[in-house]
């Protein structure tokens, strides 16, 4: 990462969940789990709107310091000077209950078996499984 | 006339009641403040989600160019034959006319729709709403079939609805109000969306008590599905607060230290309103159909969540007002009883004096 200690070159980051604004801080870089893979944004990035899948949002530098949030489905707006994340679920990795995540994984597999020939149900089952897997990975901090 | 002892006992009892209603008022005020805050904190998310959808609509055509099909099943309008009505009331009583007002508004809507020959599915939220319909209308019946595929692993599951009566209770949600959890609301919304997509229901309405502030509330019937315009609340039936109710609610709020003003927007909320609508050329890297498929059900979820949070705030406000009135009534009753008691006591004393005086005079 290039040395950009200049204060004016920090991204404003806001993480919004259905219940509240979870985080309002600044950071040098933000990693986002977009639908098409992880992406990292820095100050001055091109405007982007993208859907988030399950994974970890990681913040580096700035007032946020090093912070990690597990998110499951969301939407992000990247502007040159700010990143606004809309997340349906956002948790600190230590807030995740591994047993519960395992149960969710099991549930996803059950759904998959019950989907039959329904494509929509398959997609749903896969989505549940994916969220559970990411949750487990995040809980163990193995990213 | 009652004797002094009886009156004293009565006063003590009313005083105890007053203590209880006063405590309930304070508790409701505290809960109201929390509920108001929760509703406020939940707003940025709702704004942002609506904005993303709006900007998506502006950017893309709602109809597929090749097939002419509408982009999302939730935008499809059908003739209203089966109508789903979500009714949000409270979990507890002692809230003045709160629960019965909701019940009345819902009943009026149901009667109106029945007159047009439409079938009604009810989905009550909160124990009081459930109690209103559970005994009167039968529950919806589904034929559940499970069939194992040849490979012995996958199962084919199908639920077929059999409508037996024109008005049925499709589902009930007794615990939704307790925690007002977004995840639980998601489950409710997903089930509704699935039924709408399967054409089991042709439209969805929600009956609830809208809450802007303590003195600005109304019972509304809002159309949830099909979506005609994003971010717009399509309200069909309205019961406004009367001036007296407003006054009573305002007084109760002032005494309990609850603000009667509509809370100001936070910075986060103002900025949330601009989410995704900046005048720049965004890179939008997913196909609109796909985004629509993911965003639409969530939009419905936030709409229901929003109604739920407002209804909870309204319930606490109603209880605060009702218990405030009860406290005042108890106070008045105590004053009246004390006056009577003093009179009775004085009368007894006077009588005794007269007896002594007249006895002395007779000597």
General description of the model:
The complex is a heterodimer of chains A (143) and B (363). Chain A is α+β, with helices and mostly antiparallel strands and 143 residues long. Chain A contains 2 helices and 8 strands. Chain A has helices spanning 98-114, 119-139; strands spanning 11-16, 21-27, 29-34, 37-42, 48-52, 55-60, 67-79, 82-91. In chain A, strands 1, 2, 3, 4, 5, 6, 7 and 8 form an 8-stranded mixed β-sheet that branches. The two termini of chain B are 32 Å apart. In chain B, the strands form 2 sheets. A 6-stranded mixed β-sheet of chain B has the order 5-2-1-6-7-8, sandwiched between helices. In chain B, strands 3-4 form a two-stranded antiparallel ribbon. Chain B is elongated, with a radius of gyration of 28 Å. Chain B is α/β, with parallel strands linked by helices. Chain A binds chain B through residues 14, 16-21, 24, 34-36, 46-51, 73, 75, 77, 79, 84, 86, 88-89, 113-117, and chain B through 38, 41-42, 44-46, 48-49, 52, 55, 149, 153-157, 182-183, 186, 268, 271-272, 275-276, 278, 280-286, 291, 294-295, 298, 302, 305. Strand 5 of chain A pairs parallel with strand 9 (283-284) of chain B, so a sheet runs across the interface.
